[in-house]
Amino acid sequence: MRAVEESAKTVEEAVEIALAKLDLTAEDVDVEVIEEGSRGFMGIIGGRPAKVRVVVKENTLDRALAFMEQVVATLEIDAEVTGTKVEDGVQIEIEGQNVGVLIGRRGRALDAWQYLTNLAANRGVKDSQRVMLDVAGYRARRVATLERLAKRTAERAMERRRPIRLEPMSAADRRIIHVTLQGHPDVETNSEGREPYRRVIVSPTKGKEA
Fold first, then answer.
1. Number of domains observed in the structure of the chain
2. Last residue of one domain, picked from the residues 113, 136, 159
3. Which of 4, 38, 91, 190 is most buried (CB neighbours < 10 A)?
4. How far apart are alpha carbons 190 and 182 in whole angstroms?
């Protein structure tokens, strides 16, 4: 927990100095007034400066960064962990050497780490935020791969005039298939089965085999 103590003629001035040192705004900190300060006799004799302790509030981004930095250090992975606030939550990015262990087969390890990061980052936080974790740009590449798969499968379904069942996927991957083919004039999608074997079926809407 980061905190600084500052003194100045007034409480307000002391807080401003502390915020400048921390490069934060008043919304990001809690302020404890240690000494109100006084002007003394006629503002000259016996005056005491105001003293404050400014504590940086714990937030989802800081907790998520701390958690994944600890994971990377524990696994002895040479990687950099960075994070930013985004519109719908927090984005954590990891770049470095030998980071495949954090991704796993078809991103399953990455999904697990993202789940654990969300738990660690939002524990005890009133206004929880969604944490999105990516490693070496894997998620962007995965989205592109699944979009291509969806389009190829739609073509196969139309050519063969029968439903095509894809292999089991995570809920996030299935959603990409559904979204990619949403509004397609000649195919429709639905999911079947139970986790972790739930899969997407791409079916033609015209010229189906009897």
1. 3
2. 136
3. 91
4. 11
Concatenated DSSP letters of 94-135: EEESS-GGGT-GGGHHHHHHHHHHHHHHHTT-SS---EEEEE
Other Cβ atoms closer than 10 A to 209: 8
Locate tokens 């990687």: which residue?
Answer: 79
**171 is in which domain, residue-wise?**
148-204
Q: Are 92 and 117 in contact (CB under 8 A)?
A: yes
The CATH number linked to 186 is 3.30.1370.50
pLDDT by residue, tens only, the chain of 210 residues: 678 888 888 889 988 998 898 888 887 788 889 888 776 545 555 568 889 899 887 788 888 999 999 999 999 999 999 999 898 899 999 999 889 999 998 888 999 999 999 999 988 777 788 999 999 999 999 999 999 999 999 999 999 999 999 999 989 899 999 999 999 999 999 999 999 899 999 999 975 554
Q: Please give the order of strands across the beta sheet that includes 89-96.
A: 79-86, 89-96, 131-135
- Whether residues 27 and 77 share a domain: the answer is no
Both 156 and 109 in one domain: the answer is: no
Give the position of tokens 């930095």. 69
Please name which of 143, 12, 121 lies closest in space to residue 58, comparing C-alpha atoms: 121
